[in-house]
Automatic annotation (TrEMBL):
The chain crosses the membrane at residues 12-35. It comes from Caldithrix abyssi DSM 13497. This is Por secretion system C-terminal sorting domain-containing protein. Residues 201-292 form the GxGYxYP putative glycoside hydrolase third N-terminal domain. Residues 314-539 form the GxGYxYP putative glycoside hydrolase C-terminal domain.
Length: 651
């Protein structure tokens, strides 16, 4: 355990130093760019290997080289134009033959991979990255006559593999994918970047330059159905320190059984990663990370967030966009479908975005911050699931969770964020998000999926730790492509029972017009306020903690209604505090009930003055006996009114 803690500390320090001391590179030469969308898969893989190796040389100080940029979709060209405008470098379009000729000037070796066994590609790329070699298929190697100029280090199309190379190593017989990845784990993984690993479907070119740029071990193993591959995956992951990062995305084709789909694969993969105390950065189609990583922010990231003042009688709604943890979404779909949408900026939205852009693509983060709508604070950024990276926080062990929260807090401060969206397993919400309150300075957490409500006292809640309060709310309404009227009715129904409604919209449905329609409907009703995430959490905490203020901000409210606050701590052991606010002096009764509604303890039964009061319950019944662990209710009766809340005792 101590060794894991030391590894975690070293990794955290390394990330911090990377963030603090990464300086912007001023390119002294042209940027060579090439369209790869019309190339064959073997040609794409060759170009990506050249790109990663050349850009690594630029990163390591050879700024006279021409860095390489690949265009696989229209938005890649948009980003290049923006870079050129901001940094002032010139660009030069290359064809396949001319870029290959340029790259081979600086690369002496090559390896072969098998298009008939595509699983060899990831292994070939990992090996080639460590040996500064290009990757080719036998046919492409023949077409280019590369053997006349360069040295073949390894032929992964054969069943005899050698280490360190085919000219000097002992042969090992490889009979298939499991043998191949086991060989790679034994010989290649120890030499690779110890803080990052990639999972990548065999035919995807986009992320592949990062293998060469940072010498990253790369896999594509089944996390769902193949027990042998699951076992090997866990063995590989166990060799990484706490807090290592997985880039890429789980291969949806592993969903081979009835009822399984890509989401089933995703959940299985993220669960395995979290259980191995690793963090996921979705990025399979994140193109040109080896180029984006050469630049720092043009200026400091800052966003303006409106503070909240809870108003009695108002109902609060907050729209949060999904999928911002996904680098390829941040780089592609977010810009083309969301950011350039005519409705963007006309409705308050919390845009999830990956804090890891700070590390992998600073300019792209800066672009969004610099172009956000300032009117009415309608574009604000929150940390995409589940903070520092995509993980199930409740699946992390205690040390890894603290590490995760420290990194979350550090990157959120650098990205000037105050709120988090979290995706998590169920069952440990109270324990996990109490730690969020203790180890981050975040204002609030938006927890997706309604199932979490079964494990919390109510949909919205406040965790307290010293001087820091953390608001939390569970998703109530999800927007896909339903009619606006149906969604408005869902929101109004939820608002009948809850003053705060978290609406999560699935961006892949290109549904910002639907969100705008909902906003217009609610805006016409003066009892509703649609606000940004920071303002929403301010109001939520003021409501729960009894610190609500009048709209004119002049004084604290005189209580106008009976208020029963959530107990704290919750769950608790051995005692908890229950607070309540009386609108006038009078007789009040406060009892503890079991799940059958039977009274087990009377806490208060007398006349009290107006204002806020509190009482402790020590987990005993009226006879002074300790009660068992479980769910209990506390109920207040005052002036013919009754209010009840849930609490959990853990012995």
């Amino acid at each position: 355990m101590k060794n894991c803690e030391e590894k975690s500390k070293r990794f955290l320090i390394g990330i911090f130093l990377l963030m603090v001391f990464t300086m912007p590179i001023k390119l002294k030469a042209n940027v060579y760019y090439i369209f790869i969308d019309n190339l064959s898969v073997p040609e794409q893989m060759l170009i990506k290997s050249i790109q990663g190796i050349v850009n690594q040389k630029v990163k390591n100080g050879d700024e006279s080289l021409h860095s390489v940029y690949t265009i696989n979709r229209d938005v890649d060209l948009d980003w290049l134009v923006d870079y050129r405008s901001q940094y002032g470098f010139s660009t030069n379009l290359k064809q396949f033959s001319t870029l290959y000729s340029y790259g081979k000037q600086y690369i002496d070796n090559y390896v072969l991979w098998s298009p008939g066994n595509t699983w060899t590609l990831n292994i070939a790329c990992t090996y080639a990255a460590l040996h500064q070699a290009m990757v080719l298929t036998p046919q492409l190697a023949s077409d280019l006559n590369i053997a006349a100029e360069k040295t073949l280090l390894m032929d992964f199309t054969q069943d005899q593999w050698y280490y360190p190379d085919m000219n000097s190593g002992a042969a090992e017989t490889i009979t298939g994918k499991l043998d191949g990845y086991t060989w790679a784990m034994n010989h290649l993984l120890p030499q690779c970047d110890s803080t990052k690993i990639i999972t990548l479907k065999d035919n995807i070119p986009d992320l592949r330059d990062m293998i060469f740029f940072d010498n990253i071990f790369t896999i594509n193993l089944d996390p769902l159905n193949n027990e042998d591959e699951i076992a090997l995956l866990n063995t590989i992951l166990s060799q990484y320190p706490v807090g290592a990062t997985m880039l890429g995305w789980a291969d949806g084709s592993f969903a081979t059984e009835p009822g399984q789909d890509e989401v089933t694969v995703e959940r299985a993969f993220v669960k395995i990663l979290s259980e191995n105390n690793m963090y996921f950065v979705p990025s399979d189609y994140a193109n040109n990370l080896s180029f984006h990583g050469l630049f720092d922010f043009p200026s400091k990231l800052e966003q303006q967030e409106k503070t909240g003042k809870y108003e009695q009688g108002k109902k609060y709604v907050c729209f949060i966009a999904s999928d911002g943890d996904n680098l390829q979404y941040d780089m592609n779909y977010m810009r083309t479908k969301m950011w350039e949408n005519s409705y963007r900026g006309k409705v308050p939205v919390g845009w999830t975005i990956s804090p890891r852009l700070y590390e992998f693509a600073p300019f792209i983060a800066w672009y969004y911050y610099n172009s956000a709508a300032q009117d009415d604070f309608n574009d604000t950024f929150v940390a995409g699931p589940s903070g520092f990276s995509y993980a199930y926080p409740s699946s992390l062990d205690d040390n890894a969770l603290i590490d995760f929260l420290q990194k979350t807090d550090m990157t959120m401060k650098e990205m000037d964020m105050s709120c988090i969206v979290s995706i998590d397993i169920t069952g440990k919400e109270q324990e996990t998000y109490q730690k969020f309150a203790e180890h981050t300075s975040a204002k609030g957490v938006f927890l997706t999926e309604k199932e979490h409500n079964a494990y919390l006292p109510e949909y919205d809640y406040v965790f307290q730790s010293g001087n820091h309060d953390l608001g939390l709310i569970v998703e109530m309404v999800r927007v896909d492509d339903q009619p606006v009227s149906d969604l408005v009715n869902q929101i109004r129904l939820n608002a009948f029972f809850n003053k705060f409604v978290f609406v999560y919209f699935n961006v892949w449905f290109d549904n910002l017009d639907i969100v705008y329609g909902i906003y217009q409907d609610l805006k016409a009703d003066t009892s509703y306020r649609v606000v940004g995430p920071a303002e929403f959490m301010d109001c939520l905490m003021q409501y729960h903690l009894g610190t609500a203020i009048e709209p004119d901000n002049s004084s604290k409210l005189t209580p106008s209604d009976l208020t029963l606050h959530q107990n704290y701590p919750n769950p608790f052991n051995p005692e908890t505090v229950i607070a309540y606010t009386l609108p006038a002096a009078g007789e009040v009764e406060l009892n503890v009930l079991n799940t059958r509604g039977q009274k087990i303890k009377t806490l208060i039964n007398n006349v009290q003055s107006t204002g806020k009061h509190q009482v402790k319950w020590d987990g005993t019944d009226d006879q002074g006996r300790k009660v068992s662990s479980g769910i209990y209710f506390y109920q207040i009766k005052f002036d013919n009114k009754i209010k009840t809340k849930k609490m959990i005792l853990l012995q």
